[in-house]
Structure formats: structure tokens, C-alpha cells
Amino acid sequence: MSRDPLIVGGIVGDIVDYFDMSARLRVLYSNREITNGSELRPSQVANQPTVQITGRPGSLYTLVMVDPDVPTPSDPSQREYLHWFVTDIPEGRDVSRGTEVVAYERPQPTAGIHRVAFVAFRQSVQQVIYAPGWRSNFITRDLAECYNLGVPVAAAYFYCQREGTCGGRRYR
């Protein structure tokens, strides 16, 4: 049985294929760094996080933030929902130094416990990447293929559910 949290959480499989992590992705909401599988409420993720990617000096990165569980984990018919999309992020610098392609939209699950994933790709060149015309039914794998981004270099995720709900984590 795999202990890789990205496999256990279904990020590998539902969003991306297996990859070897070759960069470090730090995501902080109000100075709280998320860890894979941590649980955050919508009120805790209302504001855009601070994100930093460290890996190969001089590199540029692309970051996508998606929810593969929209509208509900049991019926993810709008998989993946695009919450944020940033390109040209300089290595070691905050994501705010990149080019925001799709503005941050906070997760607001209405039912169930949703996974919210951040996936980072190393860009081979600086390039113009266009915003998709929609947020629902975004496909991270298609983005990577269309713009020759290759495999991810880092990913992280957290669980999020509607405010005021009780209950625990959903295990796969």
C-alpha cells in the first residue's frame, strides 16, 4: 500500500499521473502552511494564499489550483473546477511575481468533503498561456499537454467542506 499522500488522496489518478517530486511547493493561508490532507474551512481559504516554488534556480513555473470534487465528491460531474491559474512564477519567489491567467476564487463546497489541489509545472520557456473560457471541466493533464509543460514537479492538497458541517475525513 502506498504511503504517498498524493496517491492516497487520489490527486495522482484523478488530476495528474504519477510523477517524481522535483521541486518544493509551499502554500500558506494566513501564515499557516498546508500539509497534504489538512482540513481547512472556506473562511480559512477566503483570501489568496502565499505560494512559493523552489526547485531549479532560474526556472519559471506554472501553478494551477483545482477542485476535482465539484459539485460533490460522489458526483464530480464538473471535475476539475479551476480556482486559480498563474504562469511565469520565478523560482523561489512568491506566486504574486508571476502572471495571473485566472484570478483566485476561493473554494466554497456546498456538499461533501472536497479535495483542493495545487499542481506546479516547470516551464521550459516563458510563453503566453491563455485562460480557458470556463472554470468547470478544466483538465490539468490537457493544459500540460497543450503547452508542453511535461509532468508536474510538485503538488499539494487540502480538504475543504462547507462551514458548519460536522463529520470527519472521507477515506479512499
UniProtKB/TrEMBL annotation:
<dbReference type="InterPro" id="IPR035810">
    <property type="entry name" value="PEBP_euk"/>
</dbReference>
<protein>
    <submittedName>
        <fullName>Uncharacterized protein</fullName>
    </submittedName>
</protein>
<dbReference type="Pfam" id="PF01161">
    <property type="entry name" value="PBP"/>
</dbReference>
<dbReference type="InterPro" id="IPR008914">
    <property type="entry name" value="PEBP"/>
</dbReference>
<dbReference type="InterPro" id="IPR036610">
    <property type="entry name" value="PEBP-like_sf"/>
</dbReference>
